[in-house]
């Protein structure tokens, strides 16, 4: 008997899997090259488990932000080819999502075979705010399958047809990837092992407001780097030169610093910054004190002393969540702060979580062994919303019945 957890017997059944295959591509349409296949590799275990159980696996996913119509720039065809390579088996590709090609491709599947449908966002009903339009598209997707497995963690914070509405129309279960992500996030928010250190970076404070607000009540330390640090430095009264600054968030950062000072939570800001007169591969980088950034320069990374301080703050941590690079890691001169944090995470004797998005990309770009981290999330936005305490529609719909 070939069963899948939550669905029971799946042999011979058509199982629609919502995966997250939104990977970066380079090149012209028709000759696209995948530059980071991490999300495809993360999707393989669930797809393989279903195929090995005899299911006829129908994968649906999105790529990029097409405007509700077919666009060769965002075709999933190269992704389907890479998935076949990773599975070691042919993967059929349907040239549409719910049209003639999809119907014929699914009908032609044998037990244990896999097909990928074309980009689900080529259909306006996928992302529609109108329940009826979204529901009509979900009906057509559901008609292709006998059961549904949600395994695209990067989209579970979206109330979209292939994430939310399909689950209301078919017997459903969490995929292994989503189940693992939810388990890790619960460990970060429900009685985490201490010391608990959160490292936040990236460009904007406004992207992390909810996380900071919520984790000020839960973490022992917050380490702040990346472009968002300049708004905190401004909140302390320091000049930040031409660095990225959200002036409207200065009062909020000032409030966070005051709240942390009044509690047992420590906010750690960089003591030095790597600056340059301009941004680019040819920029001349130098290190300055964080409270003495020249007016004509912009900060592009935390400095070496700060990298060492952050690493020391992580050395005895038992739980770590990291979201957002410390600098412009794609340029060698501004990558060392991010490298220092990533290196420190590999030595954490406890749970170390890399929160998806640019942080996960940095780990791979800088050449770290992914196995050295406790967990690398596939969904930066979904992770952040969970840590903000917000409801994730794609999770609640699975748990509702």
What do these coordinates show?
The strands form 5 sheets. The chain has a 6-stranded parallel β-sheet with strand order 7-8-6-3-9-10, sandwiched between helices. A 6-stranded parallel β-sheet has the order 13-12-11-17-18-19, sandwiched between helices. Strands 15-14-16 form a 3-stranded antiparallel β-sheet. It has helices at residues 38-52, 77-87, 100-107, 124-127, 131-142, 161-165, 176-189, 209-215, 229-235, 250-261, 304-314, 336-345, 357-365, 380-387, 393-400; strands at residues 3-4, 8-9, 14-18, 25-26, 33-34, 56-60, 91-93, 114-116, 147-150, 172-174, 196-200, 221-224, 266-268, 272-276, 286-289, 298-302, 319-323, 351-354, 375-376. It is an alpha/beta fold and 401 residues long. It is 35% helix and 17% strand. Strand 1 (3-4) and strand 2 form a beta hairpin. Helix 1 (38-52) crosses helix 2 and helix 9 (229-235) crosses helix 10 (250-261).
As a percent range, the share of strand residues is 15-25%
What structural category characterises the helix and strand content? alpha/beta
Q: What percent of residues adopt helix (DSSP H or I)?
A: 25-40%
- Ends distance: 24 Å
Instruction: Report Rg.
Output: 22 Å
List the strand order in the largest sheet. Answer: 7-8-6-3-9-10
Report the biggest beta sheet as strand number plus sense, adding barrel if it closes: 6 strands, parallel
Summary tags:
401 residues, alpha/beta, 6-stranded parallel β-sheet, 15 helices, 19 strands, 35% helix, elongated
Secondary structure: elements and pairs:
Layout: E1 3-4, E2 8-9, E3 14-18, E4 25-26, E5 33-34, H1 38-52, E6 56-60, H2 77-87, E7 91-93, H3 100-107, E8 114-116, H4 124-127, H5 131-142, E9 147-150, H6 161-165, E10 172-174, H7 176-189, E11 196-200, H8 209-215, E12 221-224, H9 229-235, H10 250-261, E13 266-268, E14 272-276, E15 286-289, E16 298-302, H11 304-314, E17 319-323, H12 336-345, E18 351-354, H13 357-365, E19 375-376, H14 380-387, H15 393-400
Parallel strand pairs: 3-6, 3-9, 6-8, 7-8, 9-10, 11-12, 11-17, 12-13, 17-18, 18-19
Antiparallel strand pairs: 1-2, 4-5, 14-15, 14-16
